[in-house]
Each structure stands twice: as C-alpha cells, then as structure tokens.
Amino acid sequence: MTKGLIRLSYRKIIDASSQKLWDKYVFDDTHMEFYMQAQLYNKDDKYNTFQELIDNVPQAEKLHYLTSRAAVGYIRQLNGVIPDVLNSSGKVCLPFTQFTFEILRSHVSNKDMHKIALTFYSEPITWIDTLGDALLIAYGDKRESLSNGDEVETDTLYLQPFLSISSLQATRPS
After folding, report:
1. Confidence class of residue 43 from pLDDT cuts 50, 70 and 90?
2. Is residue 102 part of a domain?
3. 174 in a structural domain
C-alpha cells in the first residue's frame, strides 16, 4: 500500500574532522569566504566568532547567505544527486533541487572552529512501503500508476542519521 508522495531531506555537517575530499574543499572555501565577509561586519576587529557577530551586529545574519556562495560551485559538482545517501546497491541515487546552507559556528582566525550544515531536499518521490530500516520508493509521483496496478521501477533507501521525511502528501484511501 502506497504511503504517499514525500520529499526527503539530508543534513550534511562539515567541520575540521570531515574526511572526504569534497567536504574538505567546501570546508576550506567556506571558511575563507566567512573570514572575508565577516570583515564587513567587524571593521574594528571587536568580534572573533560567528556567534559574537550575530549577537552584536544585526546585519551579520546575512553571513549565512554570503558564505554559501563559496559552496555553490561544489554543489553543482554533485549533478543534482544528494551525497552520502546510498540505495541498497551502494549508489548515490537521490535527486535534489533545493538546498540550504547554515553556519553552525565559526571563528575568523581559528579555522578548526568552522562548522557548517548543508541540507539537501529531494525531488518528490513516492513512498511505497517501509521494509525494516529501509524505504521502498519510486522516483517521481507514481501513485496513479501504482493504484492502476502498473509496473513501477523502485529503489530501496536505508534510513540513516540526518535523513528524514521533510514533507508528506498522503495518499487518500480508495
């Protein structure tokens, strides 16, 4: 029985301990961008951390957006597929069209304190069933095909930390 049309979100945390090469590039470039952009809000060098800037300079909230620009080129390299979320065959498979960027913490001179979150939002997918710790899905809206008894190509995604259902459009009972 089809559960409905869902969108999944995956929150990827990147900090100094990140090991993947892509993560390291994003880490380095977003910290450099944070450092440069923070100077706009810290002309007297009174503040060292992102939190100090947020607490004392109302416009510093823009640092999320301004710093995110350093990550956009790397996100394009993903070719619209969410990183780290694998199907049962071990392949990245979950398409996304939207993402958000958030600075969790940072320091202008101590790069090791830099920590960001990228949240990727999948395109709509059909949630068919839950099999243990996995979701049986079909890409796109396949609810009508399933209710007509048509054959539909499926995939299996294992639940993992930071992967969640961000929206649900339930299927109405027949």
Report:
1. confident
2. yes
3. no
Question: Per-residue pLDDT for 173 more than 60?
Answer: no
Question: Over the chain, what is the mean pLDDT?
Answer: 94
The answer to whether residue 70 sits within a structural domain is yes
Interatomic CA distance for residues 49 and 72, integer angstroms: 23
When divided into structural domains, the chain yields a total of: 1
Structural domain includes residue 105: yes
Q: What is the number of other CB atoms lying within 10 angstroms of the CB of residue 91?
A: 10
Domain of 104, in residue numbers: 4-169
Tell me, letter by letter, the H, E, C secondary structure of the chain.
CCCEEEEEEEEEEEECCCCCHHHHHHHHHHHHHHHHHHHHHCCCCCCCEHHHHHHHCHHHHHHHHHHHHHHHHHHHHCCCECCCCEECCCCECCEEEEEEEEEEECECCCHHHCEEEEEEEECCEEEEEEECCEEEEEEECCHHHHHCCCCCCCEEEECCCCEEEEEEEECCCC
Residue found under tokens 């710790």: 133
Residue range 86-124, pLDDT digits in tens: 999 999 999 999 999 999 999 999 999 999 999 999 999
